[in-house]
Amino acid sequence: MTESTTRADMHDNRAQALRKAATASFIGNFIEWFDYASYGYLAVVIGRVFFPESDESVQIMSSFAVFAMSFVLRPVGAVVWGAWGDRKGRRWALSWSILLMSGSTFLIGLLPGYATIGLGSAVGLLLLRMVQGFSASGEYAGAGTFLAEYAPTSRRGMYTSLVPASTACGLLAGSLMVSGMFVLLDDAAMSSWGWRVPFLLAGPLGLIGRYIRVHLEDSPVYQSMVEDMGAEDTQETPDRPGTRWVEPLRELLAHHKRETLITFGVSCLNAVAFYMLLTYMPTYVHEELGFSQDTATMATSAMLTVYIGSIFLMGHLSDSFGRRKMLIAACLTFIVLTVPLFVVMMNASGNLLVVIACQIVFAVVLTANDGTLATFLAESFPTSVRYSGFALSFNGANAILGGTTPFIVTWLITATGSGLAPAVYLTVVSLVALVAITMSRTLHGSELTQVGGHQS
Question: Which spans are transmembrane here (predicted)?
Answer without folding.
Answer: 63-84, 104-128, 162-183, 195-212, 260-278, 298-315, 327-346, 352-378, 390-413, 419-439
